[in-house]
Amino acid sequence: MTAIALRRHRRLASQDWAEARDRSVRRWVGVAWALLFWNTLTFTTGSVLPIPSHVGKAVAQGTLPLAFLIALAVNPRVRLRPNVFLCLLGLLILDTVITCVTAPHLGTIFRTFRLAQFVATLWLLTPWWDRDDMLLVWCQLRCLLVALGSVLLGLLIAPGRALGGSAAAQGGRLAGTIWPMAPTQVAEYAAVAAGMMVMLWLARKLSGRATLVGVIFAAALLLLTHTRTALIGLVAGTLVAGLSLFTVSARVRKSFASGAAIVTIGIITVSSVVTTWLARGESAQGLTSLTGRTSFWALVLAEPRTKFEEIFGFGLSNASIKGLPIDSNWLSSYQQEGLFGVAVCVMILAWLFVAAFFQPRGIRRSLALFLTTYVLMASFTEDAFTNASTYLLHLAVAASLLVPLTRRDDPYAVQED
Questions:
Q1: 153 sits in which H/E element
Q2: pLDDT tens digits for 167-190?
Q3: What pLDDT digit, counting tens, does each position of 350-393 carry?
Q4: In this structure, what is the dihedral angle of CA atoms 243, 146, 28, 66, given to the nearest 10 degrees?
Q5: pTM for the complete prediction?
Q6: Residue 415 has what DSSP assignment?
Q7: Alpha carbon distance 201, 223 (integer Å)
Q8: How far apart are CA 66 and CA 70, in angstroms?
Q9: Cβ count within 10 A of residue 150
C-alpha cells in the first residue's frame, strides 16, 4: 500500500510539475509575441506623453532582439517545425540580401537584418504552432485589445488631439495618442480584433457577453477612424470565414440570416448616412484615385530601373517613392523586392488559402481564412507583409492554425448543432 501511494504521489507531482512548466512556457511565449507585436508599432510625433521621437523608435526597435532572446530561452535546443510559410518568407529575405550585396545601403542592410531577426523569432516559436489551445491566436488577440485600449485611453485624456484636432492630415479621424498610431493602424487592429472575436463566438469559444462588449468596443473605434479598407476587409473576411462554417453550425446559419436582415433594413433606412461616412467628405476624383494613392502608384511604375532592379527591386526601405507613401503591398513589394518579391507574396497568400481548403471545417480553418482574407483585401491599399509588420503577424497566426495538431482530435472543431 505504501509503495502504491508513493507511486501515485510521484505521478501527481510529475503532473503538477508538467502543468507548472507548461504555464511558464505559455507565459514566456506570450511575452515574446507581445514584444514582436510592439516592434511593429511605429512611433511618430503626436504622443500626449513627453517621449522624444528617437527614444520611442529606439524602444520599439529594441523589443525585437529581446523577443528573439526570450524565444531562444524558451526553445534552447532550437527545435524548429518545418513550415512552408516561413520558408517563403525566407525567400523574401534572400531577395533583400541579394540587393544588399549588390547595392549596399545602411538603411537597407538594417531593415534586412531586422526582417531576418523577425522571421528567425517566428521560427523559434514554431514548436508551439501545433497546440490545440490556439496559443498564438489568444496572444495576438490580447495584443490587439491592449493596443486598442491605449487608443481609448488617449481618446479620454485628449479627445481633441485623438480625433485630429488641428492636424488637417487626419481630418477628424481617430488616431492613437498614448503610443502614436495612424488612423489606418487603429482601424486595422479594431477590424481584426472584432473579426477574431466573432469567429471565436460562432465556434462557442468565447462567451456572448465578452463578444458583445469586445465587438462594440472595436467597432466603435473602427467607425471613428473612417477607414474604408479595414471595414471592407472585416466584412469580406467574416463572410469567407463564416461560409466555411455555414454547413456545420446552426449558430452560423442563424447569425447570417440575422445579419442579412439587419443589413437590408440598414440599407433602406440609413443608406445616406452610410454613404456620407464612406465618402468622408471627399470629391468624386478623390474617391476614384483612392485618396490620391493611384498618383503615387504611377510614380512607382514610372521609376527607371535596370533589369536586375526590375527582378530584385531596390532593397527594403520605408516604402515610399520620392517622399510619398506607396500604400500598396504589391507596389511596395515591386519597388523594394522586384517581381521576385511580388511572386513570393502571391505564393504566400495562395499557399495559405490552399492549405485552409484542405483543412477540416472548424474554428482553426475559419480563423485562418478570416486573417488571410483580411490581409489580402488590405494589401491593395496598405503596406502589408513585405516587411516586419502586424500584417505579417496576422499571416503567421493563420499559418500556425493550418499546422496539423499534435493530437488527432481537434477539440476546437465545430460540432454539428
A1: helix 135-157
A2: 434 457 899 999 999 999 999 999
A3: 999 999 999 888 899 999 999 999 999 999 988 888 888 999 99
A4: 110
A5: 0.89
A6: P
A7: 22
A8: 6
A9: 17
